[in-house]
Structures are given as structure tokens and as C-alpha cells.
């Protein structure tokens, strides 16, 4: 999962334009990450690759001191979310993603905004909810199709037009360019403290792998004061 975790290894993901980081913060000064679930095409790249790309983006934004202090606000656009996507969302994937948000990554998720939730969202969220801490549950915002509600938290002039914003169509090209520019940094960073075992008989749970990831990232940021 975390072997060869560099931008060049995820070239199938970036053209889908699923994720971006807004150039300006939300109303509370937090870095805003946008994720569009409906843009994911399972026939193009797997959920593991999407997850790997998210880890890279988080690693990219956490290097900014103000993000370390104020945290991140995520906007999840659920337009286009379908049973085809939900089919690939196994308990293993859910536990892995939630562990990164709640336990592993040295970054505070201060708000998670969901918009354009289709009918299937309730079922998907029922799978996710049992894994969420009370703290994270208290930071969830469900806006439905009321984008004006979202705009109270993230000014529309900073949002892409897909989210009722004034910043033009969503475009991840600047983000991807910045990620590629730091290819060597990611290659070196993720080489510390994590060993790959190629033995076919190796045993271990996915949560143990996630724990390894936490040790890797946590040791790097131990000097930072992040709650």
C-alpha cells in the first residue's frame, strides 16, 4: 500500500480530477480539501490508488505550518455517488480510511462537509458511522443540495463552480504540478521506518499495516505540537 508512494505512481488517478486543495482557507483559516466521489471511475483506478493519492495530498498540506496549527476542512461532493462505487467500499477500506483521519495522520480534521448526498449516501454512511469517534461525529456537516449552507463555511468566491462557487470549473492541475515537483521528497520521506516483506506466507491484519503507517508518519512529525 505504501510502497512507491510517489506522485508518478498515481498517474491514473490525477486525470480524474477528483481532488484539489483550494488556494484560500475557509472562514476559520483552515486549509480546504475538496473530494468529488462521483469523479472516481473504478474501471480506471482502484480504491487503493485513490486512498494512496489522498495520503499524498495530506502529506503535502501538512508541511504548511498554518495547516499544522489550524487543521483541515474537507468538502466531500457526493454528486454521482452510486452503487457501483459502494460495491468497492469494504469494511477493510472503511477502517483504513477512518484510522488515517482519527488516529494515524498528524493532522486535525476540524470539519467535514458533505454536499449533494444521493439516496444511497445514507446506506454508505451507516457503514462508516460505527467507526467514527464522537469528536469526528461532532465535526460533520450535511448540507444536501443547499450549497448556500456550505458557503457559510467556505466563501463561494473560493469554491469551484461544481460547488456553487465563482472560481471556475474544478481544476487539480496546480495541485498535481506541486506534487510532482516534490517527487524526490515523497520518495525519501516514505522510505523511512517501513519495510516491505515479500514472503508469501506473511500474516497480519490491515489495521497492523495502518499502525505501521502511523509509526512512520508519527515519528517524522513527533516534534510538532499537533493535537
Tag the structure with descriptive keywords.
single chain; 227 residues; disordered C terminus; CRAL-TRIO_dom_sf; globular; alpha/beta; Phosphatidylinositol Transfer Protein Sec14p; five-stranded mixed sheet
Q: What's this entry about, in short?
A:
GO terms for molecular function: phosphatidylinositol bisphosphate binding. By secondary structure, this protein is α/β, with parallel strands linked by helices.
Secondary structure blueprint with pairings:
Blueprint: E1 19-21, E2 31-36, H1 47-62, H2 65-70, E3 72-77, H3 83-86, H4 91-104, E4 109-115, H5 120-128, H6 134-137, E5 140-144, H7 147-151, H8 173-181, H9 183-189, H10 206-220
Parallel strand pairs: 2-3, 3-4, 4-5
Antiparallel strand pairs: 1-2
What would your notes on this structure say?
By secondary structure, the chain is an alpha/beta fold. The protein has one domain: CRAL-TRIO lipid binding domain (Phosphatidylinositol Transfer Protein Sec14p, 3-Layer(aba) Sandwich), CATH 3.40.525.10. The chain contains 10 helices and 5 strands; from the N terminus they run ββααβααβααβαααα. A 5-stranded mixed beta sheet has the order 1-2-3-4-5. Helix 4 runs parallel beside helix 10. It is globular and about 40 Å long. The two termini are 26 Å apart. Mean pLDDT is 84; it is low at 193-227. GO terms for molecular function: phosphatidylinositol bisphosphate binding. This is CRAL-TRIO domain-containing protein. Residues 9-171 form the CRAL-TRIO domain.
Amino acid at each position: 500500500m505504501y510502497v512507491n508512494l510517489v506522485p508518478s505512481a498515481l498517474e491514473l488517478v490525477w486525470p480524474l480530477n477528483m481532488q484539489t486543495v483550494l488556494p484560500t482557507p475557509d472562514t476559520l483559516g483552515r486549509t480546504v480539501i475538496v473530494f468529488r466521489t462521483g469523479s472516481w471511475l473504478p474501471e480506471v483506478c482502484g480504491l487503493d490508488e485513490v486512498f494512496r493519492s489522498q495520503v499524498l495530498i495530506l502529506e503535502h498540506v501538512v508541511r504548511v505550518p498554518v495547516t499544522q496549527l489550524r487543521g483541515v476542512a474537507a468538502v466531500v461532493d457526493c454528486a454521482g455517488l452510486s452503487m457501483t462505487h459502494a460495491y468497492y467500499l469494504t469494511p477493510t477500506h472503511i477502517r483504513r480510511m477512518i484510522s488515517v483521519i482519527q488516529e494515524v495522520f498528524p493532522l486535525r480534521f476540524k470539519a467535514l462537509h458533505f454536499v449533494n448526498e444521493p439516496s444511497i449516501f445514507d446506506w454508505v454512511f451507516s457503514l462508516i458511522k460505527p467507526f467514527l469517534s464522537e469528536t469526528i461525529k461532532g465535526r460533520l456537516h450535511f448540507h444536501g443540495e443547499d450549497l448556500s449552507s456550505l458557503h457559510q463555511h467556505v466563501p463561494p468566491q473560493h469554491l469551484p463552480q461544481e460547488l456553487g462557487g465563482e472560481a471556475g470549473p474544478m481544476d487539480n492541475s496546480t495541485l498535481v504540478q506541486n506534487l510532482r515537483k516534490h517527487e524526490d521528497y515523497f520518495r525519501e520521506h516514505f522510505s523511512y521506518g517501513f519495510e516491505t516483506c515479500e514472503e508469501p506466507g506473511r500474516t497480519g491484519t490491515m489495521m497492523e499495516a495502518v499502525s505501521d503507517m502511523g509509526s512512520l508518519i508519527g515519528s517524522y512529525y513527533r516534534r510538532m505540537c499537533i493535537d
